């Protein structure tokens, strides 16, 4: 399976567009497997440096995880106040997976230094809901079948999510 | 996904163009569902090995998230496994599933056998998908390797082709 929606300027990306490898994750902030993959991605980013660009797209399983949709919208709302804010919120959500209720999200908005009232308005109005469902639909079309699903240079990665296996696959793609 | 070598038993499953065999199975301990109940509309039959597989975002959970997309394409989703109706009820409740799960439990795998996706040794079905058109004919089928969640892209593409054909005809 390959990525049906190529990585573009709309995406949240860390690292250079010129990096030889792009790793795309479809993830859910409340999914424990995504939580387990979070430090793995961080370690790989640290190890590969400029050789890797990392892109995160939303795939909230909202029927299964009651806070997943709001958490995804919260990260996007943070991104609406600056791309760096998206990533700060992203990290905070994965580092506090058991605390993703509405008051938690608002408190993270404060910690991250967002305009909190604007953040709350965006969540309430669902300003970023379409963006999240757009990510989700694109994921389904690309063969995302659960979370997390990774794509390495556009090709779905079906291996294990540990640092060793994922790094090896990325290094192969970089050659 | 369409690679025929992917599903090792893909050659055995009922093929497109075949009339889908009708069946009646329990959907709950006191309610039965027949394929013919859905005559005139597209049906997605999703055979899967068992309830409660230990992964997040498993196949049925994924389909549950995109029911509105199936609905928009005029299709009814039906899950089938050889688990009993009580097990299905617990599974559906735990995962908040909003579509029927049929119990192909007694005789074990009878409907899976009709569709030629029964795994005799394990007593479960293959991970097999069938898209059936409004006239009750199989328009697409796919057997995934048993451990691989086939996702939904194949189903959506099949439903879109079906819709395209119907619209051209009318």
Helical content of chain A stands at 40-55%
**Sheet/helix structural class of chain A:** alpha+beta
Strand content of chain A: 5-15%
Task: Pick out the low-confidence regions of chain B.
Answer: 1-10
Radius of gyration of chain A: 15 Å
Element pattern of chain A in H and E: EEHEHHHHHEEH
- Assembly state: heterodimer
Largest sheet of chain A, in brief, is: 5 strands, mixed
Contiguous low-pLDDT stretches of chain A (5 residues minimum) are none
**What does the overall shape of chain A look like?**
globular
Strand content of chain B: 15-25%
Number of helices of chain A: 7
Write structural notes for this entry.
- The complex is a heterodimer of chains A (175) and B (170).
- Chain A is an alpha+beta fold.
- Chain A contains seven helices and five strands, in the order ββαβαααααββα.
- In chain A, helix 2 runs antiparallel to helix 3 and helix 3 packs across helix 4.
- In chain B, 27% of the residues lie in helices and 25% in strands.
- Chain B has a five-stranded mixed β-sheet. In chain B, strands 1-2 form a two-stranded antiparallel sheet.
- In chain B, a hairpin with a 4-residue loop joins strand 6 and strand 7.
- Chain B is an alpha/beta fold and 170 residues long.
- The chains are: A alpha+beta (175), B alpha/beta (170).
- At the A-B interface, helix 1 and helix 6 of A face helix 1 of B.
